[in-house]
Amino acid sequence: MKQTAGTTRSTHQDARPAEGWWVPLWRFFIHSTLGTGIFVVIFAPAVGLQWGMHKMEASVRIDPWLSYAAKTGEVTLVVVDIILYVVFLLKTGWRAAKEF
């Protein structure tokens, strides 16, 4: 450290080592893989709900209101999950592009 006229200057530019060109791509890959896993975990109950409703409708008479509510919940879950997944991928891609 050099001290000049009441100010302190560092002679070192940056203490952090330089990262390779592949680091942003690796981070994008890891985040995308984990995000896809979370997407699948959230998407699975919607598929299970649809499968269960199909089996119940085939074997037992179900009140139309219950069937409608279950299908609405399934569609809502799928649509919200897809929207959030796309937003996540776009934000992750944007962050990776900014690191280049």
Describe the protein.
There is one protein chain. This protein has 100 residues and is mainly alpha-helical. Helices cover 74% and strands 6% of the residues. It has a domain at 36-100. It has two helices and two strands. The protein has a two-stranded antiparallel sheet with strand order 1-2. α1 runs antiparallel to α2. The longest helix has 38 residues, at 22-59.
Briefly, what is this?
The two termini are 31 Å apart.
The percentage of residues in β strands lies in: 5-15%
Strand order within the widest beta sheet: 1-2
Radius of gyration: 25 Å
Number of strands: 2
Mean pLDDT: 84
Tally of contiguous helical segments: 2
Coarse morphology: rod-shaped
The sequence of SSEs as H and E is: EEHH
Question: What are the low-pLDDT stretches, counting only 5+ consecutive residues below 50?
Answer: none
Give me the secondary-structure topology:
Blueprint: E1 2-4, E2 7-9, H1 22-59, H2 64-99
Antiparallel strand pairs: 1-2
Helix pairs in contact: 1-2
